[in-house]
Amino acid sequence: MSEVGIEKLNVYAGVAAIDVAELFRGRGLDSERIGNIQQDRRSLGLGFEDPVTSAVNAAKPIIDQLGEAADRIEMLIVSSESGIDYSKSLSSYVHRYLGFGPHCRFLEVKQACYGATAALQMALGYLGSGVSPGGKALVIATDISLVDARAGYAEPSTGFGAVAMLLGQTPEVLTIDRGAFGLYSYETMDSARPLPTQDIVDVDKSLFAYLDCLGNSFKDYQSRVPEADFVTTFGQLCMHTPFAGIVQAAHRKMMRDVARLSDPAVLRDDFACRLQPSLVYPRQVGNMCSGSLYLALASLIENRAGDAPVRVGLYAYGSGCSSEFLSGVVDARSRAALAPFAIADALAARTLVSFEQYEALLRTTLGVITPVSSRTVRIEDDLPLLPATRPRLLALARIADYERHYEWI
């Protein structure tokens, strides 16, 4: 059987951001706790940005690079907890504005921050089956932020944007290890989105579930790959990153409980070597929900030392909760495959807003997925916040009879 995995990967993390220190100042939060979450900036959506625009803006550079080969994409899966309709998939809009033809499946999946990994495994199973030689799939994880002052210390670490991944049989970004995975899932009410204007989180329950699922999903991974060792098998690690602080706590727990290592210097050095490269971009963006793990993967590829082939252990977690530990290999092709998309440059080019500008934005962005029969979006209001140099962007222009209409700006 041929290899399957991620051929191309791009990130769209918006065109605006706020410094976490500025957000702490505006909210009157204890600045000494910034070190606990280990967040530097967080991306923000503008008034014309919704889950559809982010998904398209993440995927469009990949489609443009493919040219006519984009016709080989026969499956489009969008993962999101920011759906815009109880029936109609937001992937239908993504399909349209990416210019896909009619011979392509599209659907939407939801399982909190695990959704993109579920979509990836579904698509890889299809591609690996051999029923459509040469076929490709596009998986996009896209979400918006609904947090405000009600979220407390979760607000500074909540991100925005999308990650798009082209899957196929020439996996330059990540070659997936076939059959090497571990699962652990159960029902828990650690977080939810009961309304299209509100996130709720039980912070303690969520942190416990995240740590519990990591240990048990890795144990299940070992049942399928008995020789796997948490320390020696994986030269690098990537984890779902709600905030960098929990990733460090998770690493420490695994090193102590699974590897039986507790020397602080050993733990510190191992974390710096195997996990720190994956946290560079998440610390600049915030939690992208199901795109978070793959933002961390992009960060790892572009910030690790050297290009030697290395096995990566990946941990996906989604509240509710569902989790998976899987693995794959990155090599010299990986950095080269990401280079054309200039992810680091795009993050650096975001416009930084003040707390007062951020508060003004919330009046629009908190209602962006609320169903309304009609609405006109004042795109011109946010144009001053766009960077001087930026790619062509898809923007929400209006809603008429509940149908969303977009235009390129």
UniProtKB/TrEMBL annotation:
Hydroxymethylglutaryl-coenzyme A synthase C-terminal domain mapped to chain residues: 268-363
Sequence similarity: Belongs to the thiolase-like superfamily. HMG-CoA synthase family.
Domain Hydroxymethylglutaryl-coenzyme A synthase N-terminal positions: 3-169
Thylakoid found in the keyword field: no
PANTHER family: 3-HYDROXY-3-METHYLGLUTARYL COENZYME A SYNTHASE, HYDROXYMETHYLGLUTARYL-COA SYNTHASE
Protein's UniProt keywords contain Cell membrane: no
Annotated protein name in UniProt: Hydroxymethylglutaryl-CoA synthase family protein
Superkingdom of origin organism: Bacteria
Entry keyword set: Transferase
InterPro entries: HMG_CoA_synt_C_dom, HMG_CoA_synth_N, Thiolase-like
